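Morning!

This is the sequence you dropped in the shared folder:
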Amino acid sequence: MNNTIFTYLKSYSTDPFEVDRLIVSAFLYSLGLENTTNAFLHPYLIQEKDKDFEGLNEFLPLCQFTKLEELIQVFEFVISPEEKIVTGAVYTPKNIREYIVDQCFNSLDDLTNVKICDPACGCGGFLYTTAKAIHDQTERTYEIIFAENIYGLDIQQYAINRSKLLLTLLALSEGENADFEFNLDKGNALNFNWTDHYEDFAGFDVVVGNPPYVCSRNIDEESRELIFDWKVSDSGHPDLYIPFFQIGFENLRPQGILGFITMNTFFKSVNGRALRQYFEDEAVALKILDFGGNQVFQSKSTYTCICFLQKNESQTVQYAQGGEESLTENIPFQRINYAKLNHKNGWNLRHHDLLTQIEEAGPAFGDLYRTRNGIATLKNHIYIFSEIKEDDEFYYLQNGSEYPIEKGICKEIINPNKLTQAKSIKELRQKAIFPYEFDAQGDAKLIAQDEFQDRYPRAYAYLEAKKETLATRDKGKGKYENWYAYGRNQSLEKYSTKLFFPHITPHIPHYTFSDDEDLLFYNGIAVVSQTEQELQFLQKLMSSKLFWFYVVHSSKPYGSGYYSLSRNYIKSFGVYDFNQDEREYIINQNDKNELNAFIEAMYNIEIPE
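The structure's back. Tokens below.
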């Protein structure tokens, strides 16, 4: 769609009815359907005598609709960015919808009496695709299809209205000019009971859709309570899409099928653990087409997959990976037994056999090594700085004004996330205001306020000048030991030796060793140890081709080819039990090819190119 259209709509109105009226009128006039007698459409048709006719005349040259798919895109666009965060609404491309619907329909013998539902229908894209497919394959009228075959639910009334508009315009554009009855309801899928609304409800033959993409911190208060009524939400901080699997599956008839495009993070995430267990316990016939790091949605940075769940027992998961070009009938799926998958630690689906062999080669990384995330001030720009100058007593920082900070309250600090480019700690060093002191055990204790003000009056005065900003941490609801304390207590310990590396990286990073026990870090990750040799060995092992292969195929992908090295994704990596001579060889070997060949030989694995 032309960006000029979206620019115009942004400034037109914030009232959903007024916006819908403009869009629907533009569609009807564009296709010469403005003489419709449909009673539902009548309030949405702008007439020449109406005060908003001038706006329509401005909009029509920008938006000459030629097909309904353009209308779906415009409807999805006019949801505000704030609403998209809350509801998780996003436009699903036509080829994705058609692939899901076709695959679901191929499992059915007859579409005449099929019952289909989208439990988070948004503006009706999937309902449009299913209705059109039934119409084309059975020659049933849209009037009958809307009344007998398709059902929809959404938490927003404007979404239900737009679904009705879209379906009505579909029928009208293909010659049906009736007044239609719909099975479209406003409600929260987390507590909506279909039997309360439809007396003869016995389950759906097909459930399709694109469950809402809402992370746990953005879920509305009502849903945040309801989400835990579903057993698949029993681990971590569940995102809103997770319970929709259980909701959809449990509303299927026997042999029914569910087709969703949704996030692929549940393969490995902590909040997907209960969902993985649910699939295994219910012996769900699960089929996954994983898009990996490929971006399907133009307007949203998400990592997605298409999942099909059939309500008949199976002991295997079918899995394939590819891009949108993979949407064919001949995708080569591999079968993996649930018994070979670990719902607790996460599923290794791509290169399953090789990843399993790596994990079984020795003790798990997470059992051998302690990893730490960096300190969390929750206002790094207040505490962390690069000094603009210094003298014998002070570092000077610029933050609105120039402030002197006593050197005695400062620690050196680095950001290991920048080790994707930088090769040394020296390049990364900054200063951190550290209002703590270490005790004999190496644990940090917050300096008492009176003592802080007395010993470091300039640093205290600076933080006091930023007190209002610090108070906004945790949306103003944070409970801290004192107002100048860091937002979290994580990593407030002394470690004699550390191996730093970034949280996400597009390639093997610069794993950087430090024996400076006073050096702090924020962001990124560190493996901590009392033994320098152990970290030197680990530095070489984690730089190997084998370790990076494991990361790429088992961890979470990010945009632009980045992958996560967080503890949850590397903790199951098997560390081969090298003897002392082999460890010394690894530490001292500087030829990367020789080192990779040696490590792969010890693991008895040849890494595919």
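Headline: DSSP finds 24 helices and 24 strands in the chain.

More detail when I'm at my desk.
O.
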